[in-house]
Amino acid sequence: MNIHEQFEEFLAKLGVEMERPEEQPFKKERYNGEALPEVSIFQASRDHYGVFYRLDIVEQRPELRIMVPTERGETKMNIYLVRLSDMMPIAACFEDMDVYEGSDAYEHGREATLQHLLYATAEMMKQLFWAGDLESQTFPPEIEVHALLQQDQLKLQG
Asked: Residue 154 burial (CB < 10 Å; 0-12/13-18/19+)?
C-alpha cells in the first residue's frame, strides 16, 4: 500500500471520504497546444556508448527519441524520433488500452502496465533503428525515423 492509499485509509477511519475525479486517470494534457506524454521513461543505452533514450506515449502512440553523441556542432549530439509504422499491429494496442475502462484492480495497475508495454515496444524499436543505416537514413519499414537534430544539418544552415 502506497502513502496515498495509507492516507486515504486513515481519513476513511475518521469518516472522511476522498473525492474521485470523474475523468480517466490518463487524460490528455496539453502545453502550448502540444500533447504531453502520458508516460515517459529515460534510459542510457547498454549497447551503445553515450547514447540515451527517451520513451514516451503521446496521444496513444509510442515514441522513442534517440540521442546519439557526435563530435560536431554545439550540442555534440544528433536526436532522432522513432515511431512505429501503421503496419505494426502493436501500435493499435496502445489506443485500445487507452479507451478500455477496466476493474478497480486493472485501473490500479494501468500505469505500470503501460510502462512495461512501452518498454517492451521500445526495445523492438531500438533494434529496428540500429538495424538501419544512419548515413543514408534508411530503416526497416516497421518504423518511421525523423531527424529532430542533426549537427551536419546545422552546419549547412548556419
From this structure: middle
> And the C-alpha cell for 8?
486515504
Residue 29 has pLDDT above 60, yes or no: no
Residues 6+ apart with CB under 8 A from 100: none
Q: What H or E segment, with its residue span, contains residue 156?
A: helix 151-157
Q: What percent of the chain has pLDDT over 70?
A: 78
At a CB cut-off of 8 Å and minimum separation 6, what does 25 contact?
Answer: 107, 110, 111
Q: Which three cell numbers stand for residue 16?
A: 472522511
Q: How crowded is the C-beta side of 62, counted as CA atoms within 13 Å?
A: 30
- 43 pairs with which residues across the strands? 53
Cell of residue 56, nine digits:
514516451
User: What is this structure's pTM?
Assistant: 0.71
- CA dist 36 → 39, 42, 77, 84 (Å): 9, 15, 24, 18
